[in-house]
Amino acid sequence: MSLLKVEGVWKHYHGLSVLRGIDLEVAPHEVVCLIGASGSGKSTLLRCVNLLETIDDGAIHLDGAEITDVRADADDVRRRIGMVFQAYNLFPHMTVLENITLAPCKVHGVRPEEAEKQARELLDRFGLADKAGEYPDRLSGGQQQRVAVIRAVATNPRLLLLDEVTSALDPTLVTEVLGVIRELKETGMTMILATHEMGFARDIADTVCFLEGGVLLESGPPEQIFSAPEHPRTRAFLQRVLEARRM
Amino acid sequence: MTEGEAAAPPGMPEGAGSPVWVKSERQLRREAELRGRARRSTSVATASTIVVVVALVVVITTSPGWPRVQETFFSPEAFVKAMPDVLRGFLLNIQIFLIAEVFILVLGLLVALVRGLRSPVFFPLRALAVLYTDVFRGIPTILLIYLVGFGIPALQLQGAPSDPVTLGIIALVLSYGAYVAEVFRAGIESVHPSQRAAARSLALSHGQTMRYVVLPQAVRRVVPPLLNDFTSLQKDTALVTVLGPLEALRQASIHAQYDFNYTPYVAAALLFIALTVPMARFTDHLAARAARRRTGGGTA
């Protein structure tokens, strides 16, 4: 059974359709990469899944239950979904450790000592053990984003959403964040990534989805999408990406 | 998840082959459910308001002293009798408010800008600005009105104002100018340093950076706290009463003392409320609009 099922989702902003009937299924342990130009609806789709946006039509199911039901408890849904943002969105007034232990302690009722122990383990695993007491603005972008990933997975979510998590980083820092994501895949984390890193998407994704103008035009295994895309729009997009890289 | 009404169907031209939105059964049911919820919330809010208001009215009107209070504070005859004079006095309050407001804005902005000057040449000016805000925020407004109102005429300077309304306005401007200066300063400092850096990188001078980049952003941000200070100023115009001009509170107290009835005070209070409530709603409206602009920005 699929972990996440998106069914005919529509979203409008100020009379503009940002999502136009999106269908998507994500199996447990599957890694899905959303690719497409800026404004194609990748981020909006992720925000809809986390109920940060209310959808205008369709339905989203998590673990077989409809989370877009008006009676559904949004906080209960978000307890089971982690999210990482493009601009990190760490809380600047909290240390790294406090950022990570906030939700486990206040939302999931984990005892502070236990939460701290788990947080330190995670920091250790991702090479940030010495940063536990630092404030976010003392860290590099790559370090901040790795902390943000740890914050998102510290609550053991069923599903992790990553919204262009390397777009604000310089190329030398991108790899360290991608390394963390790769390691998460090995632990079996189910993930949906909106990304501009085509090489990484090809490498890590089980399924790649191409979005354009709020429509999911084509999806399939990375070899197929990147080597033999069926839709002419997909071909055109990948061509533009290739050209940009050559410059 | 409190969407009141359904989003309008997109009116954009659809390209050939692209999907067209037809509202699904599910969405219609969802919207019906949301409307039902909105109705239920409204009914609950109405019911709880009625209960609270009725309880308050019962408690007050059954209190032992109520008949006396009703007669001294809520006498319709006294109200009708005092109202025309109180209203005339209130127009003077509005006048004081409007004139003071302009000078307060100018003074507050000047002081805030002076405090932001960097050059060592301006040190005395800067020190003066700091001294001004420290001293005048510390003095209770009513005390300041006494000091200005009786102190300046006592100097017997050539050309110094002696009219109580003018003196009252001067005192209010001095007192509120200090507060507003701090509000402006907070706004200026809240503009991110990167904005200043970007402006200076274009070779704009300090003054130009302030004028074209920092102040426009700062002023927009401080409008709600400024309006809050002005709501406060509106009622503090009544403090000028201690200097004797025939403003609303003075008129009310003349009537109250003449008839041994406090209803004129209630009349004056109602007039002040009638002025401050729209101002408060306007402040809320501006704050809400600013919040919408912040969140409605980034989408896809």
Furnish the topology, listing elements before pairings.
The complex is a heterodimer of chains A (247) and B (300).
Chain A: E1 4-13, E2 16-26, E3 31-35, H1 42-49, E4 57-62, E5 65-66, H2 74-79, E6 81-84, H3 96-106, H4 112-125, H5 141-153, E7 159-163, H6 171-186, E8 190-194, H7 198-204, E9 207-212, E10 215-220, H8 222-227, H9 232-246
Parallel strand pairs in A: 3-8, 3-9, 6-7, 7-8
Antiparallel strand pairs in A: 1-2, 1-4, 4-5, 9-10
Chain B: H1 25-61, H2 66-73, H3 76-116, H4 123-138, H5 141-155, H6 164-190, H7 193-201, H8 206-236, H9 248-259, H10 263-295
Q: CATH topology of the largest domain in chain B, what is it called?
A: MetI-like fold
- Strand/helix succession of chain B: HHHHHHHHHH
Q: How is the main sheet of chain A built?
A: 6 strands, mixed
Strand content of chain A: 15-25%
Helix/sheet category of chain B: mainly alpha
Number of distinct beta strands of chain A: 10
Q: Looking at CATH, which topology of chain A would you report?
A: Rossmann fold
Low-confidence stretches of chain A are none
Explain the overall architecture.
Chain A: Its main location: membrane. Chain A: Keywords: Amino-acid transport, ATP-binding, Cell membrane, Membrane, Nucleotide-binding, Transport. Chain A: Belongs to the ABC transporter superfamily. The complex is a heterodimer of chains A (247) and B (300). Chain A has 247 residues and is of the alpha/beta class. Chain A has a single domain (4-91, 159-246), classed as P-loop containing nucleotide triphosphate hydrolases (Rossmann fold, 3-Layer(aba) Sandwich), CATH 3.40.50.300. Chain A contains 9 helices and 10 strands. In chain A, the strands form 2 sheets. In chain A, strands 6-7-8-3-9-10 form a 6-stranded mixed β-sheet, sandwiched between helices. In chain A, a hairpin with a 2-residue loop joins strand 4 and strand 5 (65-66). In chain A, helix 3 (96-106) packs across helix 4 (112-125) and helix 3 (96-106) runs parallel beside helix 5 (141-153). Chain B has 300 residues and is mainly alpha-helical. Chain B folds into 2 domains: 25-59; 80-290, MetI-like (MetI-like fold, Orthogonal Bundle), CATH 1.10.3720. In chain B, 76% of the residues lie in helices and 0% in strands. Chain B has helices at 25-61, 66-73, 76-116, 123-138, 141-155, 164-190, 193-201, 206-236, 248-259, 263-295. The radius of gyration of chain B is 27 Å and the shape is flat. The two termini of chain B are 19 Å apart. Chain A binds chain B through residues 8, 10, 12-13, 15-18, 20-21, 38-44, 51, 54, 56-59, 68-71, 74, 213, 215, and chain B through 1, 3, 6-12, 15, 18-19, 21, 23-24, 26-27, 30, 33-34, 37, 299-300.
